[in-house]
User: Fold this.
Amino acid sequence: MRYVIGLLIGLLVGGCFVAIVQVISGQIYPPPPDLDFSDSKQLNEWVATLPLGAWVLVYISEVGGAFVAGLVCGLIARTRWFLGLFIIGCFFSLGGLMNMLAFRHPGTYVVLSLVAYIPMALWGGQLGAQLFPSKTAPNAAADQPDVDATTT
Assistant:
């Protein structure tokens, strides 16, 4: 059950991370006031003018969101987290791919993003699971009977 809760809360927190960083990016690199986001031609023209810093913030938001989602999943699940992290990585990959198909992105951004989502989710989850390791594995030394060397 912790695995499912970790997966769901991880996706929620990771999505919030993406939204927060993208809001910050929108404050630093605001769109023109007359931009119609439903007009794909206008949107593509504006995106083509974005500076490198804007793309770096978008990259940090999306790849960082996968990392944060994995971290939260690993913190909550503690065990059996690998599949959940892979699902998180695939979820972020699918979202990134849909975003990339919606409007033009620089080629290097596309490649760097698509290869990073799953590894970042896995890395975040592994880190989260290591921060608070599961206590379900019994201590092998405690299970061994005491043997006194003087009694045979």
Notes: The longest helix spans residues 2-28.
